[in-house]
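Tokens in:
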């Protein structure tokens, strides 16, 4: 047999031997924890967008589960292709806004109150809200031996996470609707409002220094695991039982210079939310795996099982409820009447939604002109 024929035959056999491996590798690509490493490899070899890396910020909280799961499962990275995803985590909205203003992050998942405060303090020049992420997941949980009805809250000590934060505003508004008086700054009045970091709220409840708390998940379910009872789910106070708890914000400079990257992150968010809805138990486990990585400890089954069903993962930023929350903060004396026109730019999200065959969403008249 001629040497050229032998060489051709050897090459053909080598290709044939490699085909099963290649087919197996291709078949393994897809969303899910087992496919995560394959996705990252594919992404790293994909086409780079208009920037080498995008810096994403979020909280290690269940109300930020779109970010937790999208990061854990490699969904964001797959949409970014060869552009690298770099993640930073935060424990409070003001620090994330500072990071955005300083250019340390480009895009972030954040609650409505810090987004409003950040936008108004910069006179509308630092950020835009470009998408929604989650609704709900906030509860009033109480010591059942001390508080049996909503009227029993009067005269009691109730914790909120931080002066002026989303839950603090929500609780102060509820107190006002009950006809009770509380000084918003000191927290003193017909109800004692104690601003307490979510990390230590369970200890405060256990010690008896608070009688209850108006808090997000998973803090609410952690208190329930300590014997507290859910007295009220904030979702019940809102039309359609929906209100924004987590938005997606972006630096205006980054949005202007890298719209392709913003669209990629939004595609990742929309696909993550769809995956969460279709695979609730797997998504819950994925979020908990990421929480363990970030904090060193996963949530207990009782806590996460109680918390997960109360959070809705939505692409719609629920803009009308953002305006309502701003109005509540004004009424409580925590915010001057803000001009929120321009806080939203939903054109990139609506482009993504249209391409996915989903209905477009409204900015409630608060979009950029």
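Residues out:
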């Amino acid at each position: 047999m001629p040497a050229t024929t032998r060489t051709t035959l050897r090459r053909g056999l080598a290709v044939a031997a490699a085909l099963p491996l290649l087919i197996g590798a291709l078949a393994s690509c897809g969303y899910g924890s087992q496919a995560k490493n394959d996705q990252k490899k594919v992404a790293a070899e994909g086409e780079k967008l208009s920037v080498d890396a995008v810096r994403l910020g979020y909280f290690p909280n269940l109300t930020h589960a779109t970010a937790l799961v999208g990061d854990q499962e490699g969904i964001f990275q797959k949409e970014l292709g060869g552009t690298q995803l770099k993640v930073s985590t935060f424990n409070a909205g003001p620090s994330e806004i500072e990071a955005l203003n300083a250019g340390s992050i480009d895009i972030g998942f954040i609650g409505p109150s810090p987004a409003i405060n950040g936008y108004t303090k910069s006179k509308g020049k630092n950020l835009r809200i470009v998408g929604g992420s989650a609704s709900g997941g906030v509860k009033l949980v109480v010591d059942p031996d001390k508080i049996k009805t909503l009227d029993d809250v009067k005269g009691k000590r109730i914790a909120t996470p931080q002066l002026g934060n989303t839950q603090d505003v929500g609780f102060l508004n509820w107190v006002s609707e009950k006809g009770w008086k509380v000084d918003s700054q000191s927290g003193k009045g017909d109800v004692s409002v104690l601003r307490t970091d979510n990390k230590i709220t369970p200890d405060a409840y256990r010690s008896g220094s608070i009688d209850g708390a108006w808090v997000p998940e998973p803090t609410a379910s952690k208190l329930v695991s300590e014997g507290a009872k859910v007295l009220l789910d904030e979702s019940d106070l809102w039309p359609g039982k929906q209100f924004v708890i987590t938005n997606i914000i972006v630096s205006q400079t980054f949005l202007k210079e890298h719209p392709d990257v913003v669209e990629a992150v939004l595609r990742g968010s929309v696909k993550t939310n769809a995956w969460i809805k279709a695979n609730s138990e797997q998504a819950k486990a994925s979020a908990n795996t990421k929480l363990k990585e970030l904090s060193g400890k996963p949530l207990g089954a009782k806590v996460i099982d109680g918390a997960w069903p109360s959070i809705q993962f939505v692409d719609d930023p629920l803009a009308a409820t953002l305006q309502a929350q701003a109005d509540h903060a004004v009424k409580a004396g925590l915010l001057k009447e803000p001009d929120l026109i321009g806080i939203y730019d939903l054109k990139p999200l609506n482009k993504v939604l249209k391409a996915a065959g989903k209905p477009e969403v409204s900015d409630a008249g608060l979009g950029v002109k």
